[in-house]
Design a protein that fits this description.
Blueprint (H helix, E strand, L loop, with lengths): L4 H9 L24 E3 L4 H13 L4 E4 L15 E4 L6 E5 L4 E5 L4 H10 L2 E2 L12 H7 L6 H4 L6 E8 L3 E6 L11 H5 L8 E8 L1 E2 L3 E9 L2 H13 L6 E6 H7 L13 E9 L1 H16 L4 E3 L3 H19 L1 E5 L8 H14 L3 E7 L4 E8 L4 H20 L22 H14 L12
Parallel strand pairs: 1-3, 2-3
Antiparallel strand pairs: 4-5, 5-9, 6-10, 7-8, 7-9, 11-13, 11-14, 12-13, 12-16, 15-17, 16-17
Bound molecules: flavin-adenine dinucleotide (FAD).
């Protein structure tokens, strides 16, 4: 009887190899379903490198997997081995007085936030799926989130990486260093590489003293134009908000009922800004932001931070609950094209007969326009997929990018709008790291 790949792997890696390939390991938040010959959950970085070496020697594709919260199909396997990082959960070192921490890739993002907070520090990147996503997944996608507006995306907080690189070697780039310009920036190449260049096993992260106070403010406007004017006024005012978010009429219709305090009548657009800093600074900034947001607003107020952000983090689930499914992209455009991008993304939905909701990180020009669908309706699904393609074309027409934070993964590859020379450079980088093309094949490129 032929020996299966799973049995061969088990002979080498024992209990780290699961029985079969459980459904949870074959999908991500896109709900695209793949298939795998085996799932391995190594317990150490050295074991990650050994599994990679084993696969490389036998020409077996390998799909790295973090928390599976990705929105691009990046962790969905198509044959070969799924390598899950969930057992790599050690905090290797934590030096609060030096504002730094070294964690293994499988530590949940929320755990890094908690550890930092307990010592009066913060790890600023705050993607919405933080309780389930892993720090390795955040690094592999260079994840953003609401506070990327002031603090930047994940890569800005990574000072060093340890990664398993083909054909199966552990390498370190950077470290507990605040500066390092001694080589080509391999760390930044690995950040955002979506598991196509190497498998991140650990990271050195930079932390910051946590602000003493945080005060969100919100403004409600009749329409997109008035709301986007308010966003541009905030930016033009020179006030340094820590977050600047928006929700359109479709998003408010889905989630407005649970907004603490209620949505004013006639509101078709909401802006959320946030002030942080020392007690005095944050209070002053809150009042100034409130004054700017009040201009042209139906209402403006300063809600409590915990309630506001809990509601904001639940937004995506309220939107999915409308029809059971959603398809959309996370395009980003230059800030002066934001209103046009939101309006045009909704018009695309109307042309395809689809209900839509749009929200996102306004200050970063990052839109999450989603078309609401019933997953049981193949015709609606096909129309939504066409609409999502048009959304990506729109981003490029407006001088933007097809992905502001989720990555290309499976769903957006081929849409990035690279010139032939840029595409060749991307391919050359991939070939330099992974000459056999076995790491997360079919993704990104
Ligand atoms: C409710 C919700 C809200 C979200 N909000 C945001 C948001 O505000 N901003 C944002 O940017 N994203 C957001 N996301 C998307 C998602 O959380 C991020 O993309 C996140 O960084 C994915 O991390 P993960 O650990 O779940 O990775 P996975 O989904 O498991 O994998 C994502 C990609 O990274 C690769 N990968 C994972 N781990 C490793 C590793 N250790 N080494 C190498 N490659 C690896 C995978 O192969 C895959 O290509 C949200 C998702 C949800 C469900």
């Amino acid at each position: 009887m032929a020996v299966s790949l799973e049995q061969e792997l088990r002979a080498e890696f024992g209990a780290a190899v699961l029985d079969g390939a459980p459904a949870d390991f074959l999908t991500d938040f896109t709900r695209v379903r793949g298939r795998a010959d085996a799932v391995v959950l190594p317990g150490t970085a050295e074991e990650v490198a050994a599994v990679l070496a084993w696969c490389y020697e036998r020409d077996v594709p390998i799909t790295p997997r973090g928390g599976g919260t990705g929105y691009a199909g990046g962790a969905v396997p198509f044959g070969g081995v799924v390598l899950g990082l969930e057992r790599l959960t050690r905090v290797r070192s934590f030096d609060p007085l030096l504002w730094r921490i070294e964690v293994e890739a499988g530590v949940p993002t929320g755990e890094v936030h908690r550890l930092a907070r307990e010592s009066g520090l913060m790890f600023p990147p705050d993607p919405g799926g933080a309780e389930q996503s892993q720090i390795g997944g955040n690094i592999a996608t260079n994840a953003g989130g609401p506070h990327a507006f002031k603090y930047g995306v994940t890569g800005k907080w990574v000072t060093g990486l340890e990664a398993a690189i083909p054909p199966g070697e552990l390498v370190r780039t950077g470290g507990p260093l605040r500066k390092d310009v001694a080589s080509y920036d391999l760390k930044s190449l690995l950040v955002g590489s979506e598991g196509t260049l190497g498998i991140v096993t650990a990271a050195w992260l930079r932390l910051l003293p946590a602000p003493e106070a945080v005060h969100p403010v919100t403004g409600f406007y009749p329409d997109t134009e008035a709301g986007c004017d308010a966003i541009l006024r905030v930016i033009g005012s020179g006030l340094e908000a820590s977050a600047l978010e928006y929700l359109d009429a479709g998003a408010l219709a889905a989630a407005g009922a649970s907004y603490p305090g209620g949505i004013p009548d006639g509101a078709g657009f909401m802006v959320i800004a946030e002030a942080d800093g020392s007690q005095d600074e944050a209070a002053r900034l809150r009042d100034e932001l409130l004054a700017v947001l009040s201009e042209g607003a139906l209402a403006a107020e300063a809600p409590r931070p915990t309630e506001l952000w809990r509601w904001r983090h639940g937004l995506v689930f309220a939107i999915i609950a409308q029809r059971g499914g959603k398809i959309g992209e996370d395009i980003a455009v230059p800030l002066d094209r934001l209103a046009e991008a939101i309006e045009e993304s909704l018009a695309i939905g109307r042309r395809h007969g689809l209900a839509a909701a749009s929200w996102g990180h306004a200050g970063d020009g990052n839109l999450h326009t989603n078309y609401l669908i019933s997953l049981d309706d193949p015709d609606e699904l096909a129309r939504a997929e066409r609409a999502a393609e048009e959304l990506m074309e729109l981003a490029l027409q407006l001088g933007g990018t097809v992905s502001g934070e989720h990555g290309l993964g499976l769903l957006k590859r081929g849409h990035a709008g690279w010139t032939p020379r840029v595409a060749a450079l991307q391919r050359a980088i991939k070939d330099a790291f992974d000459p056999k093309g076995l790491l997360n094949p079919g993704k990104k490129l």
